[in-house]
Amino acid sequence: MTISHSPAETIAFARTLAATLRRGDVLALSGDLGAGKTHFVKGLAAGLGTTASVTSPTFTLLHEYPGGRLPLYHFDFYRLDDADEALKIGLDEYLDGDGVCVIEWAEKFPTLLPPHTRWLRFTHREDGARVIEETIAP
Length: 138
Ligand SMILES: Nc1ncnc2c1ncn2[C@@H]1O[C@H](COP(=O)(O)OP(=O)(O)OP(=O)(O)O)[C@@H](O)[C@H]1O
Ligand SMILES: [Mg+2]
Prior knowledge:
- It is a single chain.
- The chain has helices spanning about 5-20, 35-50, 85-90, 90-95, and strands spanning about 1-5, 25-30, 60-65, 70-75, 100-105, 120-125, 130-135.
- It is of the alpha/beta class.
- It has one domain (about 20-130): Rossmann fold.
- Strands 1-7-6-2-5-4-3 form a 7-stranded mixed β-sheet, covered by helices on one side.
- A hairpin with a 5-residue loop joins strand 6 (about 120-125) and strand 7.
- Adenosine-5'-triphosphate binds next to helix 1 and helix 2.
């Protein structure tokens, strides 16, 4: 479990984690609205060395960040209404692909993700801090 007191701390945590990632890894992010999932992805992208800037893919479902040690594929299931939409844009190919996949709001469609997925839950504490903890699949 990690406690983050600022956006910069969340980014730094993800940057460190990025160094351990390997081709084919899948990170599923779940938890509270505005708890820092997109900031975490910013840290992953920075840690992998992509130069592209990270924005929330809420309206596009997928952003790709090439050019780093591994390509990063950033999904957001927040506005996804059914699993077919994700499959139509090739989710399975990305999951089986040459890079790392990170999925915000993954708990909406957990069965779309492979068994080796690592689950991270983000919660917004009353004092403003964010708690990031690894969990089992929902
Ligand atoms: N410790 C922290 N870590 C990350 N963000 C923080 C932290 N403390 C405050 N914030 C603020 O909380 C917001 C987090 O936004 P972010 O888009 O990363 O959250 P999110 O979990 O992706 O939201 P959503 O559920 O809408 O996808 C930002 O406005 C950021 O400045
Ligand atoms: Mg987000």
